[in-house]
Specification:
Length: 284
């Protein structure tokens, strides 16, 4: 029988957040795959876990995943841990999970801390609908993709969650301000630790703050989405750039009948259906 891959969430700061189930599992498995074994050994020593470790990280994630799948297929039970938080969230663990599923290897997740959810709950922003973007591509790595993602985020109506390193924080705040305008943002750092800092502010104020202050620690940025009212106004403005005939043609080209298209055009433009009908058929 194949072994099982256990995705084990580890603390994002406070060691008291380690669950008893994760400790028991890390002691019971045959092998622990860790993002950074030098970092993880401190955690394992604290909980007196002596299970052998192997390194699994961004730079060996494909070939090492295949090696680990081979071990799992031969009956080895493997636990995957990241430096902090839940494996496979903005993490190379997603590749290992994919390869295990393709090979028919059982995978289970032991829930625990996740910086993105912790920050969201502390942000004071809407939690009903949200999206997680992880780290934006750096300008150096992919300037075009970064621009495209920022353009997409500018239209996003859900609350957005990003991760950022201290040395990239200022440039990311600048790019967000240029792309999104002055939105509400909550900056979270040192989550669950002694000096946990939660700063609800705006992008403009955050930029001003870091003109004179050097960012420290890893950040989670929780950003307000575009309001539905703002989106509606922008859509209405864009529709008004079309003639009514062009607007009708857009809907009718999608297979929508003439009468229903008139209703939709009227709704988009904030006028009555009668006005649209009069414009199109006034001479009849």
């Amino acid at each position: 029988m194949a072994g099982t891959l256990y995705l084990c969430a580890t603390p994002i700061g406070n060691l008291g957040d380690m669950t008893p189930r994760v400790v028991e599992t890390l002691k019971a498995v045959d092998l622990i795959a860790a993002e950074d074994t030098r970092n993880s050994i401190k955690l394992l020593n604290h909980f007196e876990i002596h299970t052998p470790m192997t390194s699994y990280h961004e730079f060996n994630k494909v070939e090492k995943a295949m090696e680990l799948v081979g071990k799992l297929l031969s009956g080895t039970n493997v636990a995957l841990i990241t430096d902090a938080g839940t494996p496979a969230i903005s993490d190379p663990g997603e590749v290992l999970v994919q390869k295990c599923q393709e090979a028919g290897v059982p995978v289970t997740s032991l829930p625990g801390a996740a910086a993105c959810i912790t920050a969201l709950t502390l942000s004071g922003l809407s939690t009903r609908r949200f999206c997680f973007e992880g780290f934006l591509p750096t300008e150096k790595a992919d300037k075009k993709e970064r621009r495209e993602l920022l353009s997409e985020l500018a239209k996003e109506s859900r609350t957005m969650i990003l991760y950022e390193a201290p040395h990239h924080l200022k440039s990311t705040l600048e790019d967000l301000y240029k792309a999104l305008g002055d939105r509400r943002i909550t900056l979270c750092r040192e989550l669950t630790k002694k000096f946990e800092t939660i700063l609800p502010t705006t992008l403009a104020e955050a930029l001003k703050k870091y003109e004179s202050e050097e960012p420290r620690g890893e950040y989670v940025l929780v950003i307000e989405g575009k309001s539905r009212e703002e989106k509606r106004r922008e859509e209405q403005a864009s529709f008004e750039e079309l003639t009514i005939e062009e607007h009708m043609a857009r809907y009718e080209s999608q297979g929508i009948d003439h009468k229903e298209a008139m209703k939709l055009v009227a709704k988009d433009r904030g006028v009555s259906k009668r006005e649209i009908y009069a414009h199109l058929h006034g001479g009849e």
